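Deliverable D5.2: sample structural annotation.
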Amino acid sequence: MVNPTSNSRKRSRDELSDTASISPASSRSSGYASLESAPTIKKQRVVVSTNFKDGVPGVKLVRDEKKVQYLREKCRKMCDYKYDGFPGTQPAALGRGHLVSFHIRPYRVSWKAAGTRYMMLILGKDQVYMFDRENNCYQVEGLRFPLRTNFSEHLTNTLVDGVMVLDIVDGVGVLRYLIFDIIYCNGVDVKGRDFHPDRMGFIENEIVRVRTEATNSGFLQKNLEPFSIRVKPFWNATETEFLLQQKFLKTLSHGFDGLIFQPKFEPYRAGNYSYVLRWKPFSEDTVDLYVNMNHQQNGTSRGLLVDRKHNVSFDKNRKCPYYGAIEFAKKHGYLNNRIIECRFEHPLWVFVRERKDKSIPDNDKFVESVKDSNKYHVRPLEIVDFIKKNNFRAEYD
């Protein structure tokens, strides 16, 4: 019987996130940095990649197309996703219009970890698969998930969502998969349960803690696995200020990429989900789009950003490109029909870099939310002040 709320056993430090031992209620002033500058802490140089395309020992691309289609379809059905492609939740970029959400419903908050998003499908021993944002399927060797009731047996029909990070420990890169949500647990559909404490309870008690106890009992050898598994903690939204302090940021062994706000009592939903919010510093609030350099104006080096089918989409009046124009230096002319990362600075997009690691651009709804977020950018101090004054009443939280 799956029990999401049993938490009497002590958690292993290795299985928890770097910050799990940090108390939000600890000193608020010690090491406090400007909220405007805190998120831009310097990231350490990485020595390995979180992207499986670059090659990770123990992880291999599944090339059997029939098998890949079967696994994709299984994930899609588990998520109740009616479209093709990656079925994970796509948060909305937090704009000024979203602030009222913190008054309407209770939220949990966590840092947005710099890394690579993957969904993990656990079908049994030696049947652990991971899907990236482009829905490429990888099989992970040597990673085990024992059952809580019998360490000799293995979890099956389990689907989780998370991010692979590269933690720098004593100058060495260590891969860790941080699980932040769960859709199915050992054949039980849990996506309709409350995020906190239910779904987070499943992650902690049926996956993370069990692996710790199995290791202590000699049933599991974590040191032989390709990467470690941890739960990514969330706090009450009132702790947002704490997550922006240097006291917290210095505990991270990987890059800080912003904040994620997760509604406490809402289900897991596939695809675009406007209730899940993500905030990033303005300079890093970007999207990935195709660029078509064939559409130039008066000989200038200006291209148009186009949709997933390489079509130039226009607004409802057919006057302006839906995504907008982008200007390039002549040396970037080779980027025609490639995916680029860009930032919206009204009325044009600004080129950031080419995304050689991506073959699918961001979808329309996400792009539009980022445009609105950048046009009406919310400073971290505004978020903190709004939550302090207007947060959902604690007596119902």
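Annotation notes: The first strand starts at residue 59 and ends at 61. The longest helix spans residues 195-216.
The annotation will be released with the project's public dataset once the embargo ends.
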